Amino acid sequence: MSRTTLSVNLNKIAVLRNSRGGARPDLRTAAETVIAAGCGGITVHPRPDQRHIRPDDVRLLAALCRDRVEFNIEGNPFAPARGDYPGLLPLVEQTRPQQVTLVPDGDGQLTSDHGFDLQRDGERLQPLVRAFAALGCRVSLFMDPDTPALERAAEIGATRIELYTGPYAHAHAHGDAFAALQACARSARRATAAGLGVNAGHDLDLHNLGDLLKAAPQIAEVSIGHALIGEALYAGLDATVRAYLRVLAGARD
Predict the structure, then answer these.
(1) Which of 53, 76, 128, 206 falls between 20 and 30 A from 103, CA-CA?
(2) Is 74 tagged catalytic?
(3) Catalytic residue among 45, 162, 221, 231
(4) Do residues 101 and 73 make contact, with C-beta atoms less than 8 angstroms apart?
(5) Contact 72, 7 (CB under 8 A)
(6) Is it the case that residue 111 has pLDDT exceeding 70?
(7) In this structure, what are the phi and psi dihedrals at residue 135, rounded to the nearest 5 degrees?
């Protein structure tokens, strides 16, 4: 089985920049640093309220990643255009990332905290999934572990799911991760049996990542931002990316 790809989420770099105004810290420099350190992808999650990543950032990073590493844009496909934010589908059409990850988040959420309910949202999602796929993007749906109708993601045209690992990370931090870990493992097996690839993300860090990958070796990609950028404050961005890559290599070896 091939090694899991590390996609570095740069939202927190944009949060720091926006908190002060101006251009520091610089997203281009951050992206160049993590690519040079060996990551396999860059992830961003532009929101209509532009609390961190802005549409111009997406365009800059799309050009920077092209022919170098994968570019993954996360976002709510149902959110309408607002101000400079053109909506997720038009932004993806402009930038053509390798992957788009659809997430059911709203302005009131501090961060993504749940996956899609495909029994409720599947019919509404299907034409949007097909529209993103028609642009040449791999489409991933953000899903809770052990969710009912997970297999329907394949029926509506998605290529992958991204397992929401927040509950697992919380349980791991409290020393009682067995049940949450088994839920992730079961969901990865279900997705694979349905012909779906498996990604994972949210609150993953250097301490909990290895256990997850050993339990769910089907995971093709992890998207990590908040913890990685926090750890980089102490160790440096290059060294932190390389530390994650060692964990990924160890989980496969």
Answers:
(1) 206
(2) yes
(3) 45
(4) yes
(5) yes
(6) no
(7) -85, 0
pLDDT tens, position by position, 205-246: 999 999 999 999 999 999 999 999 999 999 999 999 999 999
Question: For tokens 């709510």, what's the residue?
Answer: 76
Q: What is the arithmetic mean of pLDDT over 147-165?
A: 96
* Confidence (pTM): 0.94
Look up the CATH architecture of domain 5-252.
Alpha-Beta Barrel (3.20)
Q: Among 52, 74, 172, 221, which one carries the catalytic annotation? A: 74
**Domain range annotation of the chain:** 5-252
Please state whether beta strands 160-164 and 138-143 pair in parallel, antiparallel, or not at all (unpaired). Answer: parallel
Which among 52, 162, 172, 202 is annotated as catalytic? 202
Query: Is residue 170 flagged as an active site residue?
Result: no
Residue 114 pLDDT grade (very low, low, confident, very high; cuts 50, 70, 90): confident
